[in-house]
Description:
- By secondary structure, the protein is mainly α.
- The chain has helices at residues 20-28, 37-50, 55-68, 74-77, 82-89, 98-112, 117-123, 145-157, 164-173, 185-191; strands spanning 4-5, 11-12, 130-131, 177-178.
- The chain has two domains: 4-35 and 116-191, Hypothetical protein, domain 2 (Endonuclease III, domain 1), CATH 1.10.340; 54-112.
- 52% of the residues lie in helices and 4% in strands.
- The strands form two sheets. Strands 1-2 form a two-stranded antiparallel sheet.
- A hairpin with a 5-residue loop joins strand 1 (4-5) and strand 2.
- The longest helix has 15 residues, at 98-112.
Amino acid sequence: MTAVKHEDGxxxxxxxxxxxxxxxxxxxxxxxxxxxxxxxxxxxxxxGFQAGLSWITILRKRENFRAAFDGFKPExxxxxxxxxxxxxxxxxxxxxxxxxxEGTVESAKAFLEIEDFSAYLWNFTxxxxxxxxxxxxxxxxxxxxxxxxxxxxxxxxxxxxxxxTIVYAFMQACGxxxxxxxxxxxxxxxxxxxx
Length: 195
């Protein structure tokens, strides 16, 4: 599937469909280079929660996740106790998966051990987004050798739910890789956002 022309005359990556929330996410958020460590942590955790689900499910619950997980402040999450985890397990506004919730706590602890999470991640791409030029969604890989390397290093540091496929989705979302299709209106726009 190539980029799809929407009713507004704009070509977008076909994966975002026509749901207004998904279209807005595609047009304003997905693929934009992110350099804020806390925001990167949030996106990595949300991509971990997405495993086995569709991204639109997580996107619809994103504000609930932010409220439930104290704005994704790693220093707060790292101190969660069993009582807090039980409260999260009862929160219908999020994905109630014990392993993923407990994994978030472990990932927050691992995050706090890294002096500059943003610099750590961007170092894998030499500080610049990988600029792909895919013309079809069929060309977009689920993972690449680099995501295996990042995944292995994250796991070694104690992060959870960060396999190579999750890491690639995370890299796409955070603009470490530009996977907007070349005929999508966001491809060139995102390419120009490089620091």
